[in-house]
Amino acid sequence: MPVTVPHDLPARAVLEAEKVFVMSDERAGHQDIRPMRIAILNLMPMKVATETQLLRLLSNSPLQVEITLLHMSSHVSRNTPPGHLESFYSTFGDVADKHFDGLIVTGAPIERLDFEDVDYWPEMTRILDWTRSNVQSTLHICWGAQAALYRHYGVGKYEVRQKISGVFTHRLTGAKSPLVTGFDEEFLAPHSRHTDVHARDIEATGAVEVLAVSDEAGVFLAATPDGREVFVTGHPEYDADTLAREYRRDSDQQSDVAVPAHYFPGDDPTALPLNRWRGHGHLLYTNWLNYCVYQETPFDPNGV
Description:
There is one protein chain. By secondary structure, this protein is of the alpha/beta class. The protein has one domain: Class I glutamine amidotransferase (GATase) domain (Rossmann fold), CATH 3.40.50. Helix content is 31%, strand content 25%. The protein contains ten helices and twelve strands. Strands 1, 2, 3, 4, 5, 6, 7, 8, 9, 10, 11 and 12 form a twelve-stranded mixed β-sheet that branches. The radius of gyration is 18 Å and the shape is globular.
């Protein structure tokens, strides 16, 4: 089944070229089925690229998914044309009285800032608090995961000496969760961040379970037992070349940037990287949609 997007959203053309099943909102209106209402709070600078990555993963499901794109009203995006935001995005104020089956909160390249120093932190806290009454399940990515762990449970973040960047091997912890149904006992996933959250701090909450960890990159996946709050510290949505583009961007700004670990063949930054995490990325999002959203949300979304 398709993911439903506006017919002129740029990501639609990319996904259709990949033979991904997307449906226009006009056609979806004639379907006699209630779609899953999923909002994406896009905090990333390159919003079009992030839209495409997430929509690709959300489309790999038998469910019809209706997307609402959100951006912060208290922050001015410098990397996305204002016309794109005006055409395809809403703000929290536009949806604060609505209920959603699921919400994805993306990462943001601001993890070195204290949470309270982020210009949109007051708005962010209002959104995070709102999710507990108006969203069936929220999936938080990277900085979004750190922000939610801090806001909801007081879990702090720690700056690391060297950026955690690369593709790392992870293992399941043994905690039982449908989110990891079908996962290999060891799997790969990308990370890209300057800060870390510690498994012991998460476990000390008594409310969040650590589901997958890496010896090198730390916690990858954690969630509440009911699946209403999911925390992903890495980036399974990344394209094959995303880490390469980040590495070249960072190298242009400073000279001592480390090559992303276990990413380029032979650790040669001129070599073409391969996507070795795509399967588990799709599986994670499909499991989230199925087990945490579809099987738990009420038929009337206003009853969340």
